[in-house]
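pinned: reference chain
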Amino acid sequence: MSSAIEQLAANINFSTFKKAEDLKKRIWFTLAVLVVYRLGTYIPLPGINPMIIQEFVRSNAGGILGILDMFSGGSIGRMTIFALNIMPYISASIIVQLMTSISPHLEALKKEGEVGRRKLNQYTRYGTVLLAVVQSYGIAAGLEKIQGATGMAVLDPGFMFRLSTVVTLTGGTLFIMWLGEQVTSRGIGNGISLIIYAGIVANLPHAVLSTFELGRQGALSAVVILGVLTLVAVVIGYVVFMERAQRKILIQYPKRQVAVNMPAVAQTTHLPLKLNSAGVIPPIFASSLLLLPATITGFAGTGSPDTLMGKIGMMFAHGQPVYMACFAGLIIFFAFFYTALMFNPNETAENLRKAGNYVPGVRPGKATAEYLDYVLTRLTVVGALYLASICLIPELILSKWSLPFYFGGTTILIVVSVTMETITQIQSHLLAHQYEGLIKKAKAKGKK
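pinned: its structure tokens
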């Protein structure tokens, strides 16, 4: 027999969506914020030559610059006021999360609930400003050294250029961070995730048109194009299935008497453990580390295959066996590392014990912690192999065919995960609207 929530979800249709005024306002607000963000990715930094910078980024597309340019929706290639994008905020968030497992003060704040969360968010903002200032100064210093065929990338290098670049890029990052927070509180979905999502998806129309243009010219056969499209659909389905997979551990409440003349009833709930608890963090960390050799080679100008740096760059190029083996190993390592940071079996077992809850058949306390750790370790093994397979399939494709777009596992994970999260929030708002309608009808009947 289906639950009340399942019955309400089954009744959700387009007419229900039309009546949900609050949801429509949230969606329009989110779309307006994303339009503002995309407009900012076309406003160039003052005092630069965009053509020379585009040429430089294009020549270093195989390094970290190419990945960052993809996540920023082309902001780095155009060197706009949003060139840093939201990456300093993400880095600061990860650093604060890591520090909560090291610093007793931050760990205590994490346990204080809403007050502690606000304090940690404030620390994250301070870290964002610091990282943005350091990274923007490095970008300003690096831009002054870029020279193209028609001249220097910076029209008037010096202290004023560096100062204006630091202020502009830092302000751009803080503005994007503010936009993301506004979307989270007044829109739909997670604002920061949607901004990254918008940067990735913005390049999709150009990539699709370029693929079909290559097919029209004969550079790619129709069989290859059809095979790639089919594989993309299969990979997306695979990601959806694995991201929704979870292990539900049965949790037993103590017996409680709900009525005077009724016997005490034991209530149960579930502790859901996701198959992929680490999310997209392992592929991002692994790809960033592996792209360092190619980036250093490109900046140093030692890309000749006869030099040591040139040979290292060739070994760690996309599609090479050494690159793929190291990529898979780093993904598996970071999957275990980040999962261990995010989920503490001892803390969870202690919270269950204090609440009087227990796992049936397992003693409270240390035995429960060992059981949770055992289950989570097995889930992480499957999750890490899943992440590695998702990220290696595109690398195998790139080693066989030259596609006009970057078909990466990290981008697929981000796009699919954010889409699923946003759809889930939309369904939650529709369910809340359904509940409000039922409550209003019940009150109207009561008055009659």
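why pinned: Strands lie at 147-148, 151-152, 246-256, 265-274. The longest strand covers residues 246-256.
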